[in-house]
Amino acid sequence: MRTVIFDLDGTLADTSKDLLEAANACFRELGHDDPLTDADSAVAVRGGRAMLRLAFDRLGGPWDEGMVNREYPELLRHYETRIDTHTVLYPGAMEAVAELGRRGIGVGICTNKPEALAQLLLSRLGVRDAFGSLVGADTLAVRKPDPEALFVAAERAGGLRHRALLVGDTVTDRDTARAAGVPCALVTFGPGGRSVEELEPEALLERFEDLPDVAERLLGAA
Asked: Which EC numbers characterise this protein's activity in its record (predicted)?
């Protein structure tokens, strides 16, 4: 079976405000003002450690990876408590998922968010059951851009390894697809905007309404 495998943060859902709030909460506990703003959404979807590094840079004092590693569990703790305060699915996402199903195309998720947090978020948003698989950062011994994460997501969604389309929003998604030898579609409505065009994916998605036709074109007939 053919599958479409989605990234989560910045692709299916706009999670940036809740991620940034969790990072800022860490620094408030350390006695600082919020170092991150909504303008840092592109950093937010790159992960917790990326946000912490940027925040430490902005504070201007010396820091090292040990400090980042110490704050990372605190960031996850804060994030879990407010995981869906501001997060919303992008328009048309679930309509596209339903249409893919009607066309006999399986759907799954491959994210570098820890699996438990991804499960929690999708359940809170009421859409977990719509996806045949969910592979998170710690589901396997590897994570994106290692292609095995994508392969497992495709197989658990009932598909074949090399008949998958990865839908994402960052260079990590593009690199994962290339390593797997499968096509990639990058959304232009995520935090990276149209800058993803520079990554030369097989397709650009301006809106989710176009995804089923893009999938048919890139994956071929059933």
From this structure: 3.1.3.18
Q: Give the residue extent of every domain in the chain.
A: 3-14+87-219, 16-81
Rg (CA), the chain: 17
How many other CB atoms sit within 10 Å of the CB of residue 162? 10
What tokens does 222 get?
Answer: 């059933």
As annotated, the active-site residues are 7
Identify residue 86 by its one-letter amino acid code. H
pLDDT of the residue at 221: 83
Q: What is the pTM of this model?
A: 0.95
pLDDT in tens, 79-134: 999 999 999 999 999 999 999 999 999 999 999 999 999 999 999 999 999 999 99
Could you check whether the bond before residue 145 is cis, i.e. omega within 30 degrees of 0?
yes
The dihedral built from the CA positions of residue 126, 79, 42 and 85, taken in this order, carries a sign that is positive
